[in-house]
Design goal:
single chain; 96 residues; alpha+beta; 4-stranded antiparallel beta sheet; 5 helices; 4 strands; 21% strand; globular
Length: 96
């Protein structure tokens, strides 16, 4: 088991269930609807930073979410970065 902290991406169609989980709230997360990222799915992606050990402690992830494979994780994180950059540039233009 790795002690390296990294970003983990999980997919679920039970967004509210995960958002209300106390263990997950304590860990902290970011959530993005698949549609917001231009992906034709009904669910949401949860991005959680932590070690493998940290992630394994969060029981609800095992029951209600699916760990996204490495290739899709990279694609999701790239889309989120693009989204963040477009928001920042949009806010910047308000002050020009």
């Amino acid at each position: 088991m790795s002690n390296e902290s990294k970003k983990w991406v999980f997919y679920t169609e039970k967004r509210n269930t995960l958002m209300n989980d106390e263990d997950l709230k304590r860990r902290g997360f970011r959530v993005e609807a698949a549609e917001t990222l231009g992906i034709e799915k009904k669910g949401s992606y949860f991005i959680i930073t932590g070690t493998e050990k940290d992630i394994k402690k969060i029981e609800i992830l095992k029951k209600e979410a699916e760990l996204v494979n490495k290739e899709e994780t990279e694609r999701i994180l790239a889309k989120i970065k693009e989204l963040d950059e477009s928001v920042v540039s949009g806010v910047g233009s308000l002050f020009d």
